Amino acid sequence: MKRRSFLVTTGLALMGARAATSDTQFPFTLSDAEWRERLTAAQYAVLRDHATEAAYSNTLMGERSPLLEEERAGTYNCAGCGQAIYRSETKYDSRTGWPSFWDAIEGATGTKSDRSFFMVRTEVHCANCGGHQGHIFDDGPEPTGKRHCINGLAMTFTPDDTGQVEGLPVSA
Asked: Does residue 126 have an active-site annotation?
């Protein structure tokens, strides 16, 4: 395959993946300008443009998520709209370098096929705002056998003991 064909094919695949989510209507919607104002640059890249933070460091664009190391009881929320998505009881160390969960809170997420980068994966997004969270794989622990591999920058965390939202990005 010639380089130009490769670049065109890759570009079309990426545009198609992004368009599939943006065509869906979600209960919580904002204009692009409002999303950019609401989110940090890295959060916007992950939630709205389907970027992925670096494994193990959970960094992107000079921002870092502290949620990979989070071990307290609490709720992981969508950083875009605040909807509760995962509970700490379903979090586990998948040794992949991203926060991983074996299940989401019922009704909190949606999925679609992601055919970018010449692979077929299952993308997981917030059911309330459509924010891209990460991907789901079939190599997780029981009882579901699923691994929700989630970008820390796509989430915030609310510990049960304080009820205060934490886990916002920090400087890398």
From this structure: no
